[in-house]
Amino acid sequence: MLDKSMRFLTWGKRMTSLVTGNSRRSVAGAVAATGAALLCAATFAASAEAASSILGTTGDTPQGIVVDSAGNIYTNNRGSSDVSKITPDGTSTILGTTGTNPSGIAVDSAGNIYTSNVGSSDVSKITPGGTSTILGTTGADPYGIAVDSAGNVYTANYGSNNVSKITPDGTSTILG
Questions:
Q1: Which of 58, 64, 115, 131 could form a disulfide with 127 if both were Cys (CB 3.0 to 4.6 A apart)?
Q2: pTM of this prediction?
Q3: Which residue would you say has higher pLDDT here, 132 or 23?
Q4: 46 three-class SS
């Protein structure tokens, strides 16, 4: 990193002057060390990329992702207003539909999936069997979503700067 006010080149705790002493040798050493570190980082990134794989397909424009206790992966797909399920063996399916433009996604201990739907300002619930319902309404533009152990769903509403709570029976209230 070059600190222009002090004219020092820093690399971790090592500092090499660009002004005093044999600056060409100092800069060359610092540049060589920086180049070696970048090469190591690039090599690591390339090996990490080589180790990655496509686990399954999703609907259009996946927005959020969550994993349940069995290792199933779920994405809420903003472009197609649905939820994809990818099993640990790589089988991909569309689990169910959501409200318009789902943004956030959560899963409860029973395997129910919940999405906060920005376009329709509501929350969808999809059972493990794929039954989709609108659980309740929210404030404007719900992006974040969470589910507590009692089954209450909370959304962070970007457009109205508040939080909604929806009980398991679908009663909606604004908390803040």
A1: 131
A2: 0.70
A3: 132
A4: helix
